[in-house]
């Protein structure tokens, strides 16, 4: 028996109900049965399934192929087409949409089950590879390469929406003493603890990255410099409250210095935003560490 959740997108109700009963008999959970692309996207947004079975001809402005493209780009959920249409033009569009399979009606139960299992396996394997390529191995935070692309995309979005985008650059104060006093394994433990804390403190829409060494970044969409400074001071206080114990040894207090910069007030490009946050971080360290400083306002 399986526990995977499936969304059925099919505008012929009798077919959809029959399909639902077959899948429940195998052990799958049915999230919903919908008949249009927009309804499918609404369901996925609120209760994402593990897989979508998508008819190509459905109700609404979007057909199944257009809907699949949106699902693939926005949610990354595997889709299998179930359709009676097998002409060359339809097949060509389907192949380019990012779907994980294509089953022609009428299909048998064995073929359906095998296609679902294969699609789920491929999706899990892809997610594992994607995770490895975007994460820092030590802290499991996003890595520098992923962050650079995310920063570019978020800056473009902020520009389109005329909204703010804040960047926090954090450095663990006197990090070298953890390595020198307790060993590099203890230093790694401190990095993991701070990384885990940052993940707990941020929103789902925020992006936390290990930028290099003991430097970490937090990218906060829809956040101005006033809000960002409040968040940064909260992060600083929470880091200071940590009591790291490694192999029954108290490692001592962790303090951090944080530089804050906001698009477009302090910078108008990704490179400039990083530099502004870095400059603010440098000033914070020069002024005694364990503090937050905001970047200097951009002068036109």
UniProtKB/TrEMBL annotation:
PROSITE patterns hit by this protein: GGDEF, RESPONSE_REGULATORY
Q: Which residues form the Response regulatory domain?
A: 5-120
Asked if Phosphoprotein is a keyword of the record, the answer is yes
Going by the UniProt record, its keywords in alphabetical order are: Phosphoprotein
Could you name the domain of life of the organism this protein comes from?
Answer: Bacteria
UniProt entry tagged with the keyword Phosphoprotein: yes
Give the stretches traversing the membrane.
none
Q: Which Pfam families match?
A: GGDEF, Response_reg
Listed CDD domains: GGDEF, REC_DC-like
Under which name does UniProt file this protein?
Diguanylate cyclase
Q: Which NCBIfam families match?
A: GGDEF
Q: Where is the GGDEF domain?
A: 163-297
Which residues are annotated with the PTM 4-aspartylphosphate?
Answer: 55
